[in-house]
Structure formats: C-alpha cells, structure tokens
Amino acid sequence: MEKHIKGEKCERLGRSVEGGGGFEGVRFKASECLEVAVRIGDVISCATNSEVALVKGAHLDLVGSFTPSMRECDDDEAVRRGTVFVDNETAAVEAGELVGAFERGVMRKDEIAGELVELIKREKVGRRSEEEITAFKSVGSAVVDLLSAQMVYEKYINLC
After folding, report:
1. Do residues 141 and 88 lie in contact, with contact meaning Cβ atoms separated by under 8 Å?
2. CB–CB of 21/39 below 8 Å?
3. What is the DSSP letter of 80?
4. Into which family does the record put it (predicted)?
C-alpha cells in the first residue's frame, strides 16, 4: 500500500511513521502535485483552515474547516454529487462546505445522509460502491474523543 503526502514536513512525517504504529506495509510518498495525489488516492484527509476549496476526490475526510467562511472541497464533487455524512448536527451550521452549499441551493440540510453515531451503530450505510463519492465533515465531536481514548486504553491494556 502506498500513501501520497505533500510537502517537506509531510515527507519527514511519513518517514518517521513508516513501518510502525499500525502503518506496517504502508509506504508514504511525497507528491509535488496535489491534483495527481488526489486523483490516485482512495481517501483524502483534509485538515486545513483554507477559505478556498482544495480537493476533489472519491472519499473526503474534511476535518480542518470549522467556520462558515472556511472550506476544503468544492460543491460539485463532494456536495452535489456525493453522499455527505457529518459528525453531528452542528456541522450544518458551522461547516463552510455545507453552509455555502445550502446558501447556493446546491444541497439541502435534509440531504445529509447521516451522522457518525448512525454509521458506527450501522443504522446508516456508508459507501455503497467504489465509484460513489462520499464525504465526512467533522467540526468536532465528543464521540470521536471517546472512541480515541478507548482505542488508546485498549492498546495499553493489550501491551501490559
């Protein structure tokens, strides 16, 4: 498996985690061209406070923007043609990607496919095919914090 990352700092990070911490068998590769890296990637994780859309992709994890003026994706790929999930209902009023799409009539609030808890409980189906465009918009959720803490705790217990 190969992961593409962009930038000198990212390249150093990639080298530091290769072969350990759950990344066994994963090779990180720096990419000079964001567009190429996105085109060949399966999952694109964004963590930026940009006010300009950055990527188009098959699945987007959008975790960096948290105000109505910020955005990490464009309306066409992730919102109009994609299946959008959110961490919680607050995303509909705080996430620039969604607020802007609602204002422009690209998407309605009732078109949000579901929330993270519904996916975890399997009350909602995530991706239905490899061709489907999906997006997960997170503005911050205690559920993620709790799950992260649980994973760290379980890993610690298993090491002892």
Report:
1. yes
2. no
3. I
4. Belongs to the ornithine cyclodeaminase/mu-crystallin family.
Supply φ then ψ for residue 83, to 5 degrees. Answer: -100, 120
User: 2, 93, 3, 12: which is closest to 45 by C-alpha?
Assistant: 3
What's the pLDDT score for residue 157?
Answer: 84
Calpha distance 113→20 (Å, rounded): 35
Instruction: Enter the tokens of residue 1.
Output: 């498996």
Q: Which two tokens stand for residue 15?
A: 């080298």
Q: Taking the chain (160 residues) in consecutive chunks of 10 residues, what is each chunk's mean pLDDT?
A: 57 70 69 73 66 63 80 70 87 88 90 89 86 83 77 81
Nearest CA to 4 out of 34, 47, 48, 24 is that of: 34
Cα separation, 103 vs 82, in Å, equals: 17
Which residue(s) pair with 85 in the sheet?
114, 136
User: Is residue 133 within 8 Å of residue 83, measured between CB atoms?
Assistant: yes
The H-or-E segment that residue 93 falls in is: helix 91-94
* Residues 6+ positions from 90 with CB-CB distance below 8 Å: 139, 140
